[in-house]
Amino acid sequence: MAGEPTLIGSVQRALHLLDAVGSRDRPVSAKVLAREVALPLATAYHLLRTLVHEGYLRRLDDGYVLGERVVSLGAGLPAWRLRPTLTTLRDELSAACYLAVYREGEIELVDIVDSPQHPRTDLWVGLHDAGHATALGKAILAEMSDDQRADYLARHALADLTPHTVTNPAVLRTRLTDPTGLAVDAGEYHLGVVCVSAPIRTAGGIAAVAVSAPTQRADDLLSKGSTLRRGAERIGMALSLQ
What we know:
The chain is an alpha+beta fold. It has helices at residues 9-22, 30-36, 41-53, 68-73, 79-93, 127-130, 135-143, 146-155, 169-174, 218-223, 225-240, and strands spanning 57-60, 63-66, 96-103, 106-113, 183-186, 193-202, 205-214. The chain folds into 2 domains: 9-71, Arc Repressor Mutant, subunit A (Orthogonal Bundle); 77-240, GAF domain (Beta-Lactamase, 2-Layer Sandwich). The protein has 11 helices and 7 strands. The longest helix has 16 residues, at 225-240. The chain starts with 8 loop residues before the first helix and ends with a helix.
């Protein structure tokens, strides 16, 4: 139909394979991947060989894992090494899990771990433009120095994303975290979704981990804040060792 984008099937299939590999915390075989993304095994092998050749996947004795080219897309963070911790948090909290970093003046999302049972929220506005409205962004803003925070807020308009979004910088500063040190987004980014985040500070800078779920689970997620903070500590230690 007129106006529809032209899609390249082979690119879509390769990306589906990357998603399937990235959703696991251990190597996965070509046969399992082919079955999961509904590809003939021969086609899967051709695409996997190409992805390995280009560095987006690595082939190990027991299957495929994400390659260094994918890691480099995540700001050099060893995202594949952190994925087991993110996966554990997803399962412990029964919620999609996110990791973000503060780099070169911007808040950037570097990894998401979800599942069909616990899907990610619709990321309809990028974190560059929505840091003020997300728990991830608020957790990172709370860890910034006063000068860093003032610089960030001066360069980023506080867009009104939902009726609950805080768009006044002075008010935002008072609501970055709750008394336990967690940041909460209750429908400020996406109506019907609550997100809770714990900050991560390492020698290399500031990061944050968060989980999201339907709004009716807000009390449940907040009651498990200690689990989220422990996950943030594990991620912080892993990052500090790089």
